Please model this.
Amino acid sequence: MIKKIFAFLLLIALAGVFLVVLQNYETPEELNLTAAYYAEHGAEEVGAANLVSAIVVTYRGLDTLGEVTILFLTASILSFFLKQREERGKRSVRASSELLRTASAVLVPFIFLLGAYVFINGHLSPGGGFQGGAIIASGLVLLLLTDPLRKVSSRLLARVESASGFIYVGLGIAGIFLAGGFLDSRVLPAGTFGTLLSAGLLPILYILIGLKVGTELSGLLTRFQEVQVPDGGDSPDLKKGENV
Amino acid sequence: MNFGSLALGLGFLLILIGFWGLLTQKNLIKIVIGFSVVDTGVHIIMVGIGYLQGRTAPILDAALMQRTAAAGNQAGASADVGSLIVDPVPQALVLTAIVIGLGITALLLAYVVRLHEQRQSLDISSYEDLKW
Amino acid sequence: MINSILFVVLALLALSSAITAVLAKNLVTSILAAGFVSLLASVIYLLLSAPDVAMTEAAIGSGLSTIIFFYVLNKVRRSGRHD
Model:
């Protein structure tokens, strides 16, 4: 009981701080200096129509590299913590319904296609590597819901992930020699503003980020899925839905 | 009504609700849920700070270019893009923060799984080894 | 004007489902309510002219993290029954 009162007092203090902040908050009328610079020079320097993509990939590219590294570390720690012990018995699963199997057979390719579209067009329209990667991982969720015992090849995921990470850093280093600095997108010519092949290296970098984030999120999902699936636990009647 | 300060208020309330869950709930999974509510609140605050009333998304597409040209004609000079879009920097930050938030949630849940394997309990009061 | 009403309604819905997520006795209800908070937040991002953030939140916050919660819940319940 005393704990709850203490928690309540703590929250009231926090609420007081928030109230003061809210009262003194003045809604800005103009962009601050950094944002105004990005808005004015982003189009000519980077050549990307989507300014958020320009900032994520080029201006703050180092942040993105760190972020992808954090995701990689998370995936490694997860595989360490959720290591399977072999002794558990077979897991029996109800066969999923006809509706779900048909829907996933029809929809999953299109979901993957949408994910690829979103990260290829990241510099033109809303979207990009993170969104596309998350959409691809959601497609994997649908696959796993249809067939909970499905094995996802972790070797393939690891290969795609490390290859895209390696190429990403390599292109970043190429920016030091061929353009202004690490992860500078002006290695390639800027192209026509607003077309698919524009903004120099940015679309390629964003595609690599998309592949890396997609495989990392998929790896994370399969880790949690494997926790429930003991080794060799596949039942014959579930094999039918596997020709996706 | 200004969306920016409304979003700030909403985010603060979500943070308070999430902390209330973190501090009072006994179930480990409920604690992780409280954490993810706090996470969402922080993201809403960050996007709200970058919002400017009556402006559009920071994407320089054909529609925005038309608006720039129209504003330029009215003013007699060319209006720059900077007066038509919201701040893109907080959006870029929140973009990465959301992905990292998922990573943190996954780590917390992995710890929950391991703890449960050891003691077969989700109640936080059965983990008192570090209590003094 | 419509946008303001929509914003307030969404904010109230988000707050009530956040309270449900924190206080509900049933863990399944709680997880679903937390996912719903994320879904509402993604619409709010759209109103705050942040379509990029909205896409990320919709895919990650309400899709992937909910499914991870359910995997863990399933695992915890299963091993609780066997041992």
Q: What stands out?
A: Residues 12 and 18 of chain A are 10 Å apart (CA to CA). The two ends of chain A are 55 Å apart (CA to CA). Chain A touches chain C through 21 residues (CB under 8 Å). The mean pLDDT of chain A is 79.
